[in-house]
Amino acid sequence: MISCDQKVSEQASPNSLNPVDLIITDDKNILGSWSMCSTVSGGLVMQYNDRVCPVVSFNSDGSGSVDVKEIFNWRFSKGTLTINYLPQYSNSTFADGNYTGVITRKGDGLQLLVREVKSGAKFYLSK
């Protein structure tokens, strides 16, 4: 029996204010804009000049973009990054499908290594 003077304590979890984040990612460090200045595919390394590095954005609603020109949907959970483009962006930076994603802290910034599961292509992003 609960008396009238007792108060039920509800403590909100950090993610309860935005339940969308729980569905989209289990690592909020991925959110935001990243510079992609290096890629490796088919044994070829491509380095971009700092002024022309593509900017990859991961938004909290599950949408994303590459240089605002390529629009995709994404999900990142347990180290697996899934990217799906809208049909008009079929020839894009990332192929639709599954990637592994590893975020590491480097000094003041973060690095995100994205590796395509099928081809092994790697994309190095930082912020």
Give an overview of the whole structure.
With 127 residues, the protein is mainly β. The protein has a single domain, classed as Lipocalin, CATH 2.40.128. Helix content is 5%, strand content 46%. The protein has one helix at residues 19-24, and strands at 32-41, 44-47, 55-58, 63-66, 70-77, 80-85, 97-106, 109-116, 122-126. An eight-stranded antiparallel beta barrel has the order 1-3-4-5-6-7-8-9. Strand 5 and strand 6 form a beta hairpin. It starts with 18 loop residues before the first helix and ends with a strand.
Oligomer: single chain
Give the uncertain stretches in residue-range form: 1-22
Q: Sheet bearing the most strands, described?
A: 8 strands, antiparallel, barrel
Backbone shape: globular
Number of strands: 9
**Cα-based radius of gyration, to the nearest Å:** 19 Å
What is the spatial order of strands in the main beta sheet?
Answer: 1-3-4-5-6-7-8-9
Number of domains: 1
Class by SSE composition? mainly beta
Give the N-terminus to C-terminus distance in angstroms: 54 Å
Give the CATH topology: Lipocalin
Please tell me the overall pLDDT. Answer: 83
Strand content: over 45%
How many alpha or pi helices?
Answer: 1
- Helix-strand topology string: HEEEEEEEEE
Level-2 CATH architecture = Beta Barrel
In percent, how helical is the residue content?
A: under 10%
